[in-house]
Amino acid sequence: MARSTTRPSRGRRSPPARDPALRLFAPHTPVLLVPGLHDSGPDHWQTLWQRENPGFQRVVQPDFENPALDRWAAAIACAIDGACAPPIVVAHSFGCLATVRAVYIHRRLLAGALLVAPADPDGFGVRSSLPVTRLPFPSTLVGSTDDPWLKFVKAGALASQWGSRFEGYANVGHINADSGLGAWPAGFALLRDLAERAASAGTLGAPSRAAA
């Protein structure tokens, strides 16, 4: 991505040349972190984001070792209902599938969704349980060229199916702690971009339940 070459006006101090600290971009906008199988460990970027942003809430599944799609989706729907406003969901791996299922079967609306390294629906036999149409809110789907859990071309196909903006990374595996991304500031920038798109789309203030 090209960087701006605009210089600051005279008399104004330039911002420090470092990555900004992770912090809430909108205190009134809930952020739900939805981990995948086995939860996200201490070095996972989801955990690091939550450590730097205590307002971020993690969806705790009844059994992180058992990928039961409907049970996971129900837990996500419950967390959405408990939020003070329509949340932005940041999901990883199987958590992406469960998030989309929650939207589909429980008729929940989100402010937006950041879907990182979705698991392959065919690998879990749940493709028929997921929507095949555009999600009713802004979303971004992130895939990696060497993700062992989902082929890159299938990640792009899911993004197209759900109307998500597709962000592709080269050779970062499953975009987890093993990928060596640390707190993944580039991913947090995607979250901020998603929030701006949600504000423009008007979904930040939308009801969390879809009309019947």
Descriptive overview:
The longest helix has 17 residues, at 185-201. The protein has a single domain, classed as Alpha/Beta hydrolase fold, catalytic domain (Rossmann fold, 3-Layer(aba) Sandwich), CATH 3.40.50. Helix 2 crosses helix 3 (94-105). The protein has helices at residues 45-52, 69-82, 94-105, 152-162, 185-201; strands spanning 31-34, 57-58, 88-92, 112-116, 139-144, 165-169. Strand 3 (88-92), helix 3 and strand 4 (112-116) form a beta-alpha-beta unit. It has 212 residues and is α/β, with parallel strands linked by helices. 29% of the residues lie in helices and 13% in strands. The termini are far apart. Strands 2-1-3-4-5-6 form a 6-stranded parallel β-sheet, with helices on both faces. The model is unreliable at 1-24 (pLDDT under 50).
Mean pLDDT: 87
Terminal Cα separation, in Å? Answer: 41 Å
Uncertain ranges: 1-24
Reported by name, the CATH topology is Rossmann fold
| Helicity, as a percent range | 25-40%
Largest sheet report: 6 strands, parallel
Write the H/E string, N to C.
EHEHEHEEHEH
Keywords:
single chain; alpha/beta; Rossmann fold; 6 strands; disordered N terminus
